[in-house]
Amino acid sequence: MTTEPTSGRLYSLTTILLLVLAISGCASRDDTMQKWTPSDLNGRRLSLVDEQEVENLAFFPGGYVQITIGSKSAVAGPEGRWEIDSKGVLVIRDMDGSVEARFKKLHETNGKIMVERCGYVFCSKREYRVK
Known about the structure:
The chain is 19% helix and 45% strand.
């Protein structure tokens, strides 16, 4: 009678369990969308937390937004309009009315907001300082 060593199966089971715990720990923060409100934005400024990119959004009443975008070495300063759609998503449009980006608010803590920012091609999670 041959017996199969249990240490290999135990190792595999332990590895799987650790992976499940790690994944569930990473996903433990509630990233369900929260609705934006005008008071979240009017008179406030969002600044991207990033070592390479620059993105600052200054929100004004009446839907005007002043934007600074670029890299640490070169920036541009387009203007646009902002609105909150019926689902509570922040929509940034250029002055011609084309959608530039959509921001889904995920959570806000300690003066920072985590969003899912969707541009022309893809979406990414980004963190902004709130001023």
